[in-house]
Design brief:
Layout (H helix, E strand, L loop, with lengths): L2 E7 L2 E6 L6 H13 L4 E7 L4 E6 L3 H4 L25
Antiparallel strand pairs: 1-2, 2-4, 3-4
């Protein structure tokens, strides 16, 4: 199946299938295949009347992790407490 990207935003991609029409059965099979297959999408919705497919990408590993709080090492608050660098570095 060929498709054209109609709209893309954070958290959603909307495609339009190039076929003139699709049956309800084809739409159900496509939706089941897209939602069930391992890959970059966590869910998909297929509209048979408009031939549109809406894909919801799975969050990236970096987005799943909460941004950690800044870490201050003990004694690193003042530059004078840092150990001197070795000569030649």
């Amino acid at each position: 199946m060929h498709a054209t990207i109609l709209h893309e935003c954070r958290g959603r991609i909307r495609l339009r299938l190039k076929q003139k029409s699709i049956s309800l059965r084809q739409a159900d099979l496509l939706e089941e295949w897209l939602s069930g297959s391992p890959g970059p999408f966590r869910a998909a919705v297929v509209h048979e009347r408009t031939r549109c497919v809406i894909l919801y990408p799975a969050p990236l590993e970096t987005e799943k992790l909460a941004s950690p709080a800044p870490v201050l090492l003990a004694g690193a608050e003042h530059p004078s407490s840092c150990p001197p660098t070795a000569p030649g570095l």
